[in-house]
Amino acid sequence: MNSVENNDQWQPCPSGTLAEVAQQVSHRRRQVAKRRLGLVVLSICLLVIGFGFWQSNAQTISCSSAYAMLDDYIHERLDAEQVRAVKRHLASCEKCRRAYESMQQRAAFGGLSRIWQVLGILSSSATSDRLQS
Ligand SMILES: [Zn+2]
Known about the structure:
Blueprint: H1 3-9, H2 17-59, H3 63-74, H4 80-92, H5 94-119, H6 124-132
Helix pairs in contact: 3-4, 3-5, 4-5
The structure holds zinc ion (ZN).
């Protein structure tokens, strides 16, 4: 390891070589910066898409799922997440909202008719006839 020997192997650069090297380094830096920017943009896109999927899964349930849960929703037999899902669906779906209101009225009438039955005001046959209509 002799530094003098190594120094002897060095030769002066031809003119313009340093400027060329500086240009290449600068070009590579720009390429790296572009790749980094691309990666950041790609990551943001993936995050946005992932968040969109997560939100759509969390927020929307199908009409058939919502309809299947309506009875349990009215009688408060769903967990908090299911309640949120049904509420969100009802807020955005006119058809299911109407079905819910109709089921709610029937449930309320059913509850009232049971009270009336207990009080002897209505006979059970009259109540069931009204429930079916
Ligand atoms: Zn619906």
